[in-house]
From TrEMBL:
Domain of life per record: Eukaryota
CDD domains recorded: USP_At3g01520-like
Protein name: UspA domain-containing protein
UniProt cross-references to InterPro entries, sorted A to Z: Rossmann-like_a/b/a_fold, Universal_stress_UspA, UspA
Length: 160
């Protein structure tokens, strides 16, 4: 029975954003988790934050034109697609099949929801290295995921 557990491949998800730390985490996962990411398609996941739209809404005192909101949403979708395509190309270059997913929402909550929904067995995140003050006031996606994700979470810190 223990032999079977050792050979079972795990579903791995890497959360990607525009920060280079997340791409480093992807590279790290491809290099160090080879057995798992080559046996089962690697899941690449990004979240389109709704906060940008909230800023526009607040800046216009609640009278944002629907066209402006739609334009911002379309731009966010294009950026998310480009991020995932770049990550998928990195995977292809290493001979790894990847599936991509994008959601709109609060990144930390959306990541944890995706982990549960898609039965992810290992979540890989990059560490942006926020200072103590920023982390205290803004929160940390990686800290939240470590506390709330229903699977082990690997936080990869890029060397200085």
């Amino acid at each position: 029975m223990a032999e079977i557990e050792k050979t079972k491949k795990k579903k791995v998800m890497v959360a990607i954003d525009a920060n280079e730390c997340s791409h480093y985490a992807l590279e790290w996962a491809l290099e160090n988790l080879t057995d798992h990411v080559t046996a089962i398609p690697l899941t690449l996941f990004t979240v389109q934050s709704i906060s940008d739209i909230n800023y526009i809404y607040a800046a216009t005192h609640g009278s944002t034109a629907p066209e402006l909101i739609k334009s911002v949403q379309e731009q966010q979708s294009k950026l998310a697609a480009a991020l995932l395509e770049r990550a998928k190309d990195i995977c292809s270059g290493r001979g790894v099949i990847a599936e991509t997913m994008s959601r709109v929402g609060d990144p930390k909550e959306a990541i944890c929801e995706a982990v549960e929904k898609f039965k992810v067995e290992l979540l890989v995140l990059g560490n942006q290295g926020k200072g103590t003050l920023k982390r205290t006031f803004l929160g940390s996606v990686s800290n939240y995921c470590v506390q709330h994700a229903n699977c082990p979470v690997l936080v990869v810190k890029k060397p200085a």
